[in-house]
User: Which sequence fits this backbone?
């Protein structure tokens, strides 16, 4: 890109410790104006800690952090005035109505009452909650609460929108509706920072992302770039049926090892990472192996994610 | 300072909306309970005490003796109620404080807003109670109306440290301790119903330590016209110290909890 890029979030050597525990262990990144930037990582990777620092709420333990060109240590309120934050928990006031949650929030940013009312009505329209305006938040479904939280984060017309796991716990319909809203915001020029552990969400929404693991950045790039760098074009999945044991899988893997750039042995199947999946299938059959089921698919971000962060449960 | 005031102003609509939604529910506990005490103790027990001669009370009716102290006690009770469960709700249950500090508001601003609302709740409740007391003839001198700012001071002196304590709790079980070992004994033994000199020595000293005793004394002295300026200064200073130290602790507790 030849044009001058403006860094809205500039991070160098950023660390965060809670007592003896270091949640973020020194990360570098820049988020450019107008892009949708993602943090991917398993639970405990340091995504939320990083988001809280970028939100100018939690102070950094070490390193450089500039948000919208300002230092959160000294200009926290000014920075927060230009951010929209959609936290992981909804933190809505359930005693108040849907509309009150928006108008009152706008007041915290110093907007006039008239301005708050105007924006509340626009935003309710935007997230399709106009009919629920006078309903208490208690009575909303999970998806509606999420939409309201996103609407609330937009009440100050932020330059930068932070979304911490925006669609966790939602049904597919609600997720797709939210993605549509977020896509429209991006089209309108809002810079988005999203944390998620849904790979499809990251592929749908993010121009660029980092995979975090153990408080560090394990990889950075566009979804397509990450797949090129850390996986192959295609994956061939071979299933040999339930009677085949793990030890048999290891033996089978030995027979097809050379057909793929990388091979992964799972309890129920073999994964062959290769640029030509069909070719690998043909070669497998040529060697006299008869898998019960074969699937050739394109590599996804999930393959990259699992390669970088492992298959072990973190909890 | 200017920023704190501006950020306080920005929270006004929130607290107003909260009040509009909750004031009916608070009617009974806020107004009815102190009223029942006033009727039972002041008029019921009072007529019994007075019929035996009011010499021990310095020649005033029992109603006039207890009414100013009840006013201060009401201030304490409202304040503790508002500094316990609502604070825990903001931190743990509804987490609305977290949404506030994602805006230009700072943790300290959130504390000031919450304390400001408690001040309003204490003042409005005690004002109604004061009107009732006055109607029953519970004040001996017009200066007794100064019991209202005293009740407010008592309320703030307990609300601030209790809010700080609330930030340390993992669940609301700890509030039972506050009510059992703080509010109820203070209400009974802080001199509202009888002079604390009647108590065993060590309890008498506990009464002097409690903020409520200072409020009760001052409120009664104002109504009965027995104010000793130096003692009054001590009472006010003691309550202010509780309020100021409590506020510092609350700001520290909120900051630690919200910002981490």
Assistant:
């Amino acid at each position: 890109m030849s044009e001058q890029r403006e860094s809205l979030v500039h991070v160098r050597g950023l660390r965060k410790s809670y007592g003896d525990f270091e949640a973020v262990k020194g990360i570098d990144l820049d988020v450019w104006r107008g892009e949708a930037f993602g943090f991917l990582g398993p639970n405990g990777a340091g995504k939320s800690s990083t988001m809280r620092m970028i939100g100018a709420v939690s102070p950094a333990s070490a390193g450089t952090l500039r948000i919208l060109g300002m230092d959160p240590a000294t200009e926290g309120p000014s920075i927060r005035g230009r951010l929209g934050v959609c936290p992981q928990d909804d933190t809505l006031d359930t005693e108040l109505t849907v509309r009150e949650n928006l108008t009152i929030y706008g007041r915290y940013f110093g907007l006039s009452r008239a301005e708050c009312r105007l924006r509340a009505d626009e935003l309710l329209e935007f997230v399709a909650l106009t009919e629920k305006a006078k309903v208490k938040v208690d009575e909303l479904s999970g998806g509606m609460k999420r939409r309201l939280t996103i609407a609330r984060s937009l009440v100050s017309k932020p330059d930068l929108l932070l979304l911490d796991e925006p669609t966790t716990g939602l049904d597919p319909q609600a997720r797709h509706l939210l993605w549509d809203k977020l896509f429209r915001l991006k089209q309108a020029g809002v810079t988005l920072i999203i944390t998620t552990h849904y790979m499809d969400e990251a592929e749908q929404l993010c121009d660029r992302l980092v995979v975090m693991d153990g408080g560090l950045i394990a990889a950075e790039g566009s979804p397509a770039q990450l797949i090129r760098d850390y996986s192959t074009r295609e994956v061939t999945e071979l299933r040999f049926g339930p009677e085949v044991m793990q030890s048999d899988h290891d033996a089978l893997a030995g027979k097809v090892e050379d057909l793929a750039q990388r091979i992964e042995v799972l309890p129920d199947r073999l994964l062959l990472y290769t640029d030509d999946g069909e070719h690998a299938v043909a070669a497998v059959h040529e060697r006299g192996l008869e898998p019960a089921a074969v699937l050739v698919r394109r590599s996804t971000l999930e393959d990259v994610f699992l390669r970088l962060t492992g298959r072990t449960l973190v909890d | 300072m200017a920023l704190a005031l501006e950020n306080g102003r920005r929270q006004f609509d929130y607290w107003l909306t909260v009040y509009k939604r909750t004031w009916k529910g608070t009617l009974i506990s806020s107004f009815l309970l102190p009223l029942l005490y006033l009727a039972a103790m002041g008029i019921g027990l009072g007529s019994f005490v007075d019929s035996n001669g009011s010499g021990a009370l310095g020649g005033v009716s029992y109603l006039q003796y207890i009414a100013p102290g009840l006013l201060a006690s009401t201030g304490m009770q409202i304040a503790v109620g508002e500094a316990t469960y609502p604070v825990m709700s903001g931190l743990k249950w509804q987490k609305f404080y977290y949404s506030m500090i994602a805006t230009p508001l700072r943790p300290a601003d959130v504390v000031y807003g919450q304390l400001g609302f408690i001040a309003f709740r204490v003042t409005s409740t005690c004002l109604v109670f004061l009107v009732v007391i006055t109607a029953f003839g519970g004040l001996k001198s017009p200066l007794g109306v100064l019991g209202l700012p005293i009740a407010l001071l008592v309320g703030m002196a307990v609300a601030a440290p209790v809010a700080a304590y609330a930030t340390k709790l993992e669940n609301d079980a700890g509030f039972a301790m506050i009510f059992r070992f703080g509010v109820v004994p203070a209400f009974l033994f802080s001199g509202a119903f009888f002079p604390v000199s009647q108590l065993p020595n060590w309890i008498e000293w506990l009464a002097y330590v409690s903020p409520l005793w200072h409020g009760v004394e001052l409120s009664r002295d104002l109504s009965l016209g027995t104010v000793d300026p130096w003692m009054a200064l001590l009472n006010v200073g003691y309550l202010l110290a509780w309020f100021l130290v409590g506020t510092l602790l609350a700001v520290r507790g909120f900051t630690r909890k919200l910002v981490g």
Q: What stands out?
A: Chain B has one domain: 2-43+56-259. Residues 2-43+56-259 of chain B form one domain.
